C-alpha cells in the first residue's frame, strides 16, 4: 500500500504590538496587533496511509527540547489531532487513514508564541498537501480560524496586522529593497506560564490603564500605534517603528511578575534597542541590530548570570533563549515522498 511521508516546518509568532480595544458582543476582546513569524520552528513528520480503521498517532521526537516535551499533550485533544479531524470532516478521504505524526518540539509551551497553533497549522498544511491542495488558501484559513485565533496567522505567517480577535489578517509584504529588520532575542522563563483568560480579566479590572496608542500619542508620534509601526516597517524605517512597539498587557502583568521587569532591564542594560512582551506572556522579545549581535548578547546575558551565581538561590526561573529573525513563511511542507508500506494493508 502506498504511503505518503512529509516533513512540515511551522514557525513561532511574535506580537510586535498588542492593543486591547474593548470587549465584543460575543464576549471576546477586540484587539489590534502587528504579528511576525520568526525563525524558531517546530518540525513535524506526517506518515499517511490508507487503513482498515481511521487512526491518529502522535509522538515526540527525541530531538525535541527536553523542557518543552514533557508537558506536550499526545492525546486526542492535541491541536494536531483536532486539525486533522476538522480537515477530514470538510474534505473526507475515500478510505480510512492512519496518520502518524512525529513532532520535534522546539517552540516553548504556554509562551505566547503560538506553539500549539503552529502544530495545528502544520497539520492542516500536511492534510491539504496530501489531498493535492483540494482546498484553496482562503478555505484553509477559514478552517484554521475555527481552531483558534492564532491559527490563521500560523498557517500564513509573514508580517501582518491582526484585528477582531487577532484572526482577521492584513498582509504587509516586506520588499527586498527595504533595509532588513534587525534580529530578535526570544526570552522565556522556563517554568512560568500566564493564563490568557486571567490576563484579559486583570486588564478589564484595572483602573487607570493606558493603551499603547494613547502612549504613542502622548509621545507625539501617532494616534494608532500598530498602523504607524506597520507603515514604517514597510518603508524600512524600523528604528522609528520600534518606538511604537509595545503591549497593553504589560501594565497588569508586570506588577505581578517582577522577573519580567528584570528581563527587560537586563537586556536594555546589555544594549537591546527595545524589550517587550509578546501576547499575554510570559515571553519577552528584545530587538538587536543583527543575528550575530543577538548571539553575542545571549552569551553576555549568560555570563552575567554566572557572575551573579552567588545569588542563585534567590533567582527567578532560568531563561530559554533564542536568536531569531523575522521570516515571511507560515507552516510549509519542506519534504515529501511516496513509498510502499505493508502496514494496514
Q: How would you describe this protein?
A:
- There is one protein chain.
- With about 350 residues, this protein is of the alpha+beta class.
- It is about 35% helix and about 30% strand.
- The chain has 2 domains: about 1-170 and about 330-340, 2-Layer Sandwich (Ribosomal Protein S5, domain 2), CATH 3.30.230; about 185-210 and about 250-325, GHMP kinase, C-terminal domain (Alpha-Beta Plaits), CATH 3.30.70.
- The protein is globular.
- The N and C termini lie close together (about 5 Å).
Percent range of helical residues: 25-40%
The CATH topology annotation of the largest domain reads as Ribosomal Protein S5, domain 2
Radius of gyration: 21 Å
Major β-sheet, in short?
9 strands, mixed
What keyword list fits this structure?
alpha+beta; Ribosomal Protein S5, domain 2; globular; 345 residues; 2 domains; Alpha-Beta Plaits; 4-stranded antiparallel beta sheet
Summarize the structure.
The protein has twelve helices and 13 strands. It is α+β, with helices and mostly antiparallel strands.
Question: Could you give the topology of this structure?
Answer:
Layout: E1 2-23, E2 29-50, E3 55-60, H1 66-69, H2 79-90, E4 97-104, H3 115-130, H4 137-147, H5 151-156, E5 159-163, E6 168-171, E7 183-189, H6 196-205, H7 212-218, H8 225-234, H9 238-241, E8 246-247, H10 250-253, H11 258-269, E9 274-277, E10 284-288, H12 291-307, E11 319-324, E12 326-327, E13 332-340
Parallel strand pairs: 1-8, 3-4
Antiparallel strand pairs: 1-2, 1-13, 2-4, 2-5, 2-12, 5-6, 7-10, 7-11, 9-10
